[in-house]
Amino acid sequence: MDLISGLGFPGSLPDWTNLNVLHRNTLPPRAHFYSYASEEAALSFNYEQSELLSLNGTWKFYYDRTPFEAPIWETANVTDWDDIEVPGMWQRQGYGIPHYTNIDYPFPVTPPNVSYVNPTGSYWREFEIPEDWEDDQQIRLRFEGVDSAFHVWVNGEEVGYSQGSRNSHEFDITDYLTPGEANSLAACVYQWSDGSYIEDQDQWWLSGIFRDVYLVPFPRSSIVDYQVNTDLDDSFESGTIKLNVTIQGEAGNMTVKLLSPDGDELDEWTGSSSDIYEHTLDGDDFQLWSAEIPNLYTLLVTFNGRTISQKVGLRRVEISGNNFLVNGKAITIYGVNRHEHSPVSGRTVPYADMRADLIRMKRSNINTIRTAHQPPHPAFFDVADEIGFYVISEADLECHGFGKVTWTNEQAAEWTSQNPDWEEAYLDRARAVVERFKNHPSVIIWSLGNECFYGKNLDAMNSWIKERDPSRITHYEPDRYAESVDVYSQMYSSPQSIREFIGNHTDKPFMLCEYAHAMGNGPGGLKEYIELFRSEPQIQGGLVWEWSNHGLLKKEGDLEYYAYGGDFGDEPNDADFIMDGLVLSDHTPMPSLNEYAKAIQPITVNLTEDGRQMVITNHYDFLNVNHLDASWHIVRDGAERSAPVKFNVSVPAGESQAVAISTGNQTFDEELWITVEFALRESTFWAGAGYVVAWDQLHVNPPATNQTRRAVSSSKVVRRQEQLNVTQEQTHLKVEDGDSSFDFELLQGNVSWTVDGTDIFQRGPELAFYRAQTQNDEARWGDGPFWEEARVGSMHTQVRDVRWQQGEDGLVVSYKVWVGPKALEWGAEADLTYTVSQGSLTVHASGEFVGNSTPEVVPRIGLMAVLPVEFDEVAWFGRGPGESYKDTKEGCKIGLYEMGVEDLFTHYDYPQENGNREDLRWLQIGTGDDGVTLDARRDGGETFSFTARRYMPYDLDDAKHPHDLEPLDMTVLHLDYDNNGIGSATVGPRPFEQYRCYTEPFDFTFELSIV
Fold it and tell me: Is 514 a catalytic residue?
């Protein structure tokens, strides 16, 4: 195979490692738009009806380990090449391997140099210019995304070069074409370039032509760029739309039509293309755009036979004091960070998948998206405008890896951010993102990039953006004290540290660009963050990290699973750190999304002290709640016992209103709740009428007896006898009570229970202090390292004394036990007392932790028992239906629930602790109809939590992928007096103090019976 002679290996510096060559023969960045042959076609907003020729599809492809062994186009025999799909990442089509790092560069750090051993993909295809395209036109070739750099040839002649993986690249190829004949297009794509040093985002390193490629014809005189601005008066009751176009060739007449959000024509104007079009709207014609009310006007701009259609939103963004305002209101960001990700195709994300994601976000009360950490596909902004999101549009810029090769952030900045040799590369990325998306009302903030430390090149970016687009504000988190940008921004700070910061920095708005790291089971503590946002006006919200796990579908024979760092043999890697979203890799929602949706819901309801009124608070920034249907119903002892009562309510944005309620008569021993719901009255882009936007439960009163009524779930009748039959057989104490028999093992404290030949407990109930770790626990900032050091997961029970006594109330068996790990001196000194009476078993546990190496917290304090696998059906009165923990339970309603043991399990992409349910009044677990059902509850009606699964905690700890788990032939039941919260310690705080399971004295009782 011939070599690329133009590279002159090794005598010249390749473009892809030359800071003085960012682009060659590319056209200036411009607004993203399509041109149409008619107004009717333009109103479709369908690019397939526009004047373009898509080059997506099957291309020929040749893969090499270096550009210097890649074919040259004059002599290449492409018939021998493979086929590849464009758009697509070549690692997802069988070439090379995906590589995941969070911070580390996957190559030697010698900027701007990258290795000459640089995997290279050669692409080739043919095309013909459509016959109906006019001859005298400029033909542009446009790539919407190529990772990371590439050269382009047309008909064997080199056209140019470009880099900037997630930015667009446009070439004038008019003079390279042969009319009426087949033309060839070739691209040589390089996996690494000097640009890779500033594209070190926390994601998979993937390569190729991964977004659309197409040809666009431009008449010699045509609109090549334009900018739409809106100017609103201070009353926000009128505003002016302004349009300024850029023409190539000769100016001429231009026609502009303005359509209302309903499609009615409001204005038609004809004038010179060199003039600025202006039209003022007021009265009924004036409708503001916001994320809550995304009213969009349409501009139709016709020049020289081509029409451009552009959606326009009337809105104003500004700084006032220490707030940023949208349309005069200090909004609150309830946001999420979103990488573009498909588990199948990587960063090539189908439009339908992207739109489905945004619809799910909207249904989850999310109002803001940060395009972390690079520009997404242009279609994203169209959907954000339409459905209604605020967008923080971020430049394709991150160089976090330099922090791994230096001691301080200042030293890290010297590599690129403070280095004048890199200034143009930084400015190039600012220009690319601003020019491309400047006409979208959803974009309210330009973000300079992410984790590039701080230096004068960021200052230069900020200055250019502020001069080019003063209508928006700027953001950059490493500018911690907002010396250049408009807002204070932090990542993963605790509520306490945020309060301390704003106490000393009061002059600018504050936001969290990342918080609540959604790693697997978590994040915990969302409620506290939202309460902080709503109580401190300077704090304007935050964005959860992040939307989705980034597992890539991997097939090994019949096995399919979602892979993470290292699963492809990629080294170095950051393993499962890429599994950190609110939805799974296949974008199935996780419990955390439900929790977040509840935490940020736009309406909250509280009960007055006298219990006669509910106070409805509207957290919308613009909407009145009267666009929703409001209702409430009574829940007695967990069951809905009344038809919904609809009521009319009108509460303006930011205000509260009290509404009277009546719960009617209630019996003495009922626990009473009121569930209040607010549902869409009319269908929208994102949900149908009846969709519940917000809900709350009001606890009217606990039962007066402090005991919930027992629910009977089977017809099994258990025979009991008046006198227990108690015998000792060596180290076993055996008890007969009618159909029930108990076996107390005296050496190690094990208890078994059989009813009418059916085993209830094969082991336990025994004291348990360990649960499987979550990814948040395992983090170096989490509690997991302390638990491992203290060997909490390998604690053993030693019986130090056992006594029993039989009386009128039954048999009491009392153990004094020590529960502790091998090789260490700490543990729990505890009394375990079992009482057998009337066929039931009461377990009382009390004790304290002793020893100098006692950890501050333990995962749980409670009982563990092993039941036969046939115990598969579970019912409970508590929170559900999904999993919940102390700091992740707000999104789960109190009620009655039934579920199989397998359905209790949350199938995370990375196995970990899961499936807990909080605030139980009672639990029943049984074998089904006419079988045996065990009933469990706390003494005195106290609440508890439980898990039931087919695995021991260490099974979950040992598994690295779901297919590593082998279900046991048993049901492992945990009944917890207390358990540790979840937190977000992978990057953020451990569980807040009120949610921690401290190693303090404990005392609790569980009553177990057969029903």
Answer: yes
Catalytic residue from among 514, 670, 890, 913: 514
What is the domain partition of the chain in residue ranges?
5-219, 222-317, 601-701, 725-1010
Q: 144, 292, 451, 677: which is the annotated catalytic residue?
A: 451
pLDDT, position 343 = 98
In tens, the pLDDT along 659-709 reads 998 877 666 578 999 999 999 999 999 999 999 999 999 999 876 544 444
Yes or no: domain 222-317 corresponds to CATH 3.20.190.10: no
Q: What is the pTM of this model?
A: 0.96
CB atoms within 10 A of CB 660: 9
Nearest residue to 389 via CA among 349, 426, 355 = 355
**Level-2 CATH architecture, domain 601-701:** Sandwich (2.60)
Reading phi first (left if > 0) and then psi (alpha if -120 to 50, else beta), residue 952 is in: beta
CA 891, distance to chain mean position in Å, is 16
* Domains 222-317 and 725-1010 belong to one CATH topology: no
Cβ of 856: how many Cβ atoms within 10 Å?
A: 12
In CATH, which superfamily holds the domain spanning 5-219?
Galactose-binding domain-like (2.60.120.260)
Tell me the C-alpha distance between 709 and 986, whole Å: 42
**Before 671, cis peptide (omega within 30)?**
no
Dist. CA 762–CA 754, nearest whole Å: 9
| Residue 954 near residue 947, CB atoms below 8 Å | no
Mean pLDDT of all residues in 266-275: 95
Reported as a pLDDT band with limits 50, 70 and 90, residue 12 is confident
CA distance 728 to 65: 76
The dotted CATH code for 725-1010 is: 2.70.98.10
Q: pLDDT digit string (tens) for 912-930?
A: 999 999 999 999 999 987 7
Q: Give the span between the Cα atoms of 625 and 735, in whole angstroms.
A: 63
| Residue 35 near residue 216, CB atoms below 8 Å | yes
Q: Using CB atoms within 10 Å of the CB of residue 83, give its burial: 0 to 12 exposed, 13 to 18 middle, 19+ buried.
A: exposed
Q: Which two tokens stand for residue 117?
A: 């051993």
- Confirm whether 736 is a catalytic residue: no
How many Cβ atoms sit within 10 Å of the Cβ of residue 799? 17
- Please name the helix (run of DSSP H) or strand (run of DSSP E) that holds residue 279, with its range, or none: strand 277-282
- The residues, ordered by sequence, that sit 6+ positions from 347 with a Cβ below 8 Å of its Cβ are 89, 145, 147, 166, 203, 204, 206, 210, 340, 341
> Running DSSP on this structure, what letter comes out for residue 919?
E
Q: Is the dihedral of CA 33, 35, 40, 45 positive or negative?
A: negative
